[in-house]
Design a protein that fits this description.
The complex is a heterodimer.
Chain A (H helix, E strand, L loop, with lengths): L10 E11 L6 H7 L3 E4 L4 E6 L4 E6 L3 E7 L2 H17 L7 E13 L6 H7 L4 E2 L8 E5 L4 E5 L4 E6 L2 H17 L7
Antiparallel strand pairs in A: 1-5, 1-6, 2-3, 3-4, 4-5, 6-10, 7-8, 8-9, 9-10
Chain B lengths: L14 E3 L7 E4 L5 E4 L14 H5 L7 H17 L3 H15 L2 H4 L3 H18 L6 H8 L3 H15 L8 H11 L15 H17 L8 H16 L3 H5 L2 H8 L6 H17 L18 H6 L1 H20 L9 H9 L6 H17 L20 H4 L21 H5 L5 H21 L1
Antiparallel strand pairs in B: 1-2, 2-3
Helix pairs in contact in B: 2-3, 2-5, 3-5, 5-6, 5-7, 8-9, 8-10, 9-10, 10-13, 15-16, 16-17
Subcellular location (chain B): Nucleus
Keywords (chain B): Activator, Metal-binding, Nucleus, Repeat, Transcription, Transcription regulation, Zinc, Zinc-finger
GO molecular function, one term (chain B): zinc ion binding
Chain lengths: ~190, ~425
């Protein structure tokens, strides 16, 4: 339940991006040969590996840096990363799971009212920007939380931030601003 | 005194520094013998510290592309017939943006696009209505590229221009349509002033019913001009004209979303047309065009009536005392309707709404799956909401669970599989090279 309304707003996390390091050099050819569910991209210098459970795609570089995308929660991202590290261990590399960090969280949320974007942009200039010819949503960047919110006229929000807490805080922050711009203002 | 010691000719140690013509010299004070002398020219080895071009240049000249860009900015302003201050502002922006590292080493096309974007920005700052579409047409560039350059430029210059107001652009857009009596036969011709006036009213109505927010301006303008043209003289001939034919007639390029906007606008007009007391037949999108004139003339009254009817229907459906949260639209409308004769009825309506609000304070509204269906006017995507995919049940994870071996093994190929894999790859590569 958030404090700003009678109803609780559902914040649905759609993507969590996390990175970690294996502290050892990885031979991409070996991984491509001996691993199933892998796509080797020699031109870029990485291997894409897809896990089934949790549903995660990992980009593996030979330096030992790995980026995991596709998780739906921070814990899931950690589990997926650990699975991956274990897998690489089994393939014969001296892996040490370290420097795990959630880098980006993408969430969607829906307001139970429509938002008049031009009024919203006028009230919140210069933090909000809106170009109807380029993108149908208004972009609002919250510097303190390092979060970006895209507000659509239907009341849907897309929030990106460094972690789940910031994303929730961003929704709390922006709710009153959106509530003000529910209906078109009179001239 | 010097560090040399003694004079070679007389042996005296009385040696002084004596500068002759700015040349440093060590001279014996007793016999006048020159002990040593410095170099006349004191240039460091390998050339001086200051380069030749810098020593001889008067001021830094802008490079050729910079000058060309400024010329292009001037050209675009002349084509669009903009005021001198817009031209000056655009040139200032260009000078600033061009020297920035994001734009100094890009392709020539991008530099030209930058010139156009500077014009666009200065128009926005000085309230001259112009769309990104117009600029991309002038530059003959992809609108996406123009958009990208424009946003980057805003970031660099740290400027936040005001958002485009669609009614302002409508006038310029209207002029493009060749519908006057000199271009088309008399039955199809329309004076641009009347067309503009009606189109503006339609746009305002569209803005109020959530058709405008979040959408591109050009299709909306096209739809309103089309409906305005049809409704100003709704004879059989005009009503037969489809949007595509109308665009052909007016020599404008049709935009696909304009059809959807026309349909949405007609739906809104129908909702209002139903409330006209002297119309007997049912109002459908087919026959609403004839009523557009009347609808626009009395639109505020019709809006309030439509909302009241909607509220009553909702109340009847729920069959309970407290009504759904009264829409703020009612309160907004009341301020605008002050001048019309129906003011008293609307005020009564508003006071009733406030009483309802107070009665309803304690109740939490029910969470209906689609709040858009409750309201009379809502963004079309909400009214016709797409069905969400059934979400898969979320796994209960903690992140620190045990990982079983068998699970990991499913991701690793056995040695035999590896050999098969290598063999298959070799076969495939040899066959592909063989066919080549």
């Amino acid at each position: 339940m958030d404090s700003s309304g009678d109803e609780a707003l559902d914040i649905i996390i759609t993507n969590v991006v996390a990175t970690f390091r294996t502290r050892c050099h990885l031979n991409l050819r070996t991984i491509a040969l001996e691993g199933t569910n892998v796509i080797y991209k020699p031109e870029v210098g990485k291997v894409l590996m897809k896990l089934r459970k949790p549903k995660i795609t990992a980009s593996i570089w030979s330096s030992g840096k790995i980026i995991c995308t596709g998780a739906t929660s921070e814990d899931e991202a950690k589990l997926g990363a650990r699975r991956l590290a274990r897998l690489l261990q089994k393939l014969g590399f001296k892996v040490r799971f370290s420097a795990f960090k959630v880098v980006n969280v993408l969430a969607v949320c829906s307001m139970p009212f429509a938002v008049h974007l031009i009024d919203f942009t006028k009230n919140n200039r210069p933090i909000a920007s809106y170009e109807p010819e380029l993108h149908p949503a208004a972009m609002y960047r919250i510097k303190t939380l390092k979060a970006t919110v895209q507000v659509f006229s239907t009341g849907s929000l897309t929030i990106t931030g460094p972690n789940v807490q910031n994303v929730a805080a961003a929704v709390e922050y922006i709710y009153p601003l959106l509530y003000e711009c529910q209906k078109p203002l009179c001239k | 005194m010097s560090l040399v010691g003694s004079c070679p000719s007389c042996g005296s140690s009385n040696i002084v520094d004596d500068d002759l013509y700015a040349q440093a010299q060590l001279v014996c004070a007793d016999c006048g013998c020159v002990v040593s002398e410095g170099v006349l020219a004191d240039d460091p080895v390998g050339g001086s510290d200051v380069s030749y071009s810098r020593t001889t240049a008067v001021t830094k000249q802008p490079c050729l592309n910079h000058r060309k860009g400024l010329e292009r900015v001037k050209e675009i302003c002349r084509i669009l017939r903009l005021r001198l201050e817009i031209e000056d502002l655009a040139q200032t922006y260009f000078k600033q943006a061009f020297e920035h590292e994001s734009f100094i080493r890009v392709t020539l096309q991008k530099k030209e696009v930058l010139a156009g974007c500077c014009v666009l920005l200065s128009c926005r700052q000085l309230n001259w209505p112009i769309t990104i579409g117009t600029i991309s047409c002038l530059l003959n560039a992809d609108p996406a590229l123009v958009g990208g350059v424009y946003l980057e430029m805003l970031k660099i210059l740290n400027v936040e221009p005001s958002t485009l107001n669609i009614t302002d652009v409508l006038e310029a857009h209207c002029r493009e349509y060749k519908i006057s009596s000199s271009h088309v036969p008399e039955e199809l011709a329309e004076d641009s002033k009347d067309l503009m006036k009606r189109a503006v009213a339609l746009v305002e109505l569209a803005a109020h019913s959530w058709i405008v927010t979040g959408r591109r301006p050009v299709p909306i303008m096209m739809a309103t001009i089309y409906l305005a043209w049809q409704s100003l003289n709704p004879n059989k001939l005009r009503l037969k004209f489809s949007l595509g034919k109308f665009c052909q007639l007016a020599k404008v390029q049709k935009s696909k979303p304009a059809l959807a906007r026309t349909a949405e606008l007609k739906e809104t007009l129908c909702k209002l047309g139903k409330e006209i007391p002297w119309v007997g037949e049912t109002v459908t999108p087919g026959n609403v065009v004839k009523l557009v004139g009347d609808i626009l003339e009395h639109r505020y009254v019709l809006l309030s009536r439509a909302l009241r009817t909607h509220e009553d229907t909702m109340q009847a459906e729920h069959q309970s005392g407290p009504v759904d949260p009264p829409t703020g639209e009612m309160v907004q409308i009341s301020e605008r309707v002050d001048q019309t004769a129906a003011a008293s009825s609307v005020e009564q309506l508003c006071s009733r709404n406030e009483r309802d609000k107070q009665a309803e304070e304690g109740d939490a509204p029910d969470c209906e799956p689609n709040w858009g269906k409750r309201l009379l006017f809502a963004p079309p995507c909400v009214i016709h909401a797409k069905k969400r995919r059934v979400e898969q049940p979320m796994l209960e994870v903690t992140g620190d669970e045990e990982i079983s071996d068998s699970e990991i093994d499913s991701y690793i190929r056995s040695p035999r599989e590896v050999r098969d894999f290598i063999r298959t790859q070799e076969v495939l590569s040899s066959s592909s090279s063989g066919t080549l």
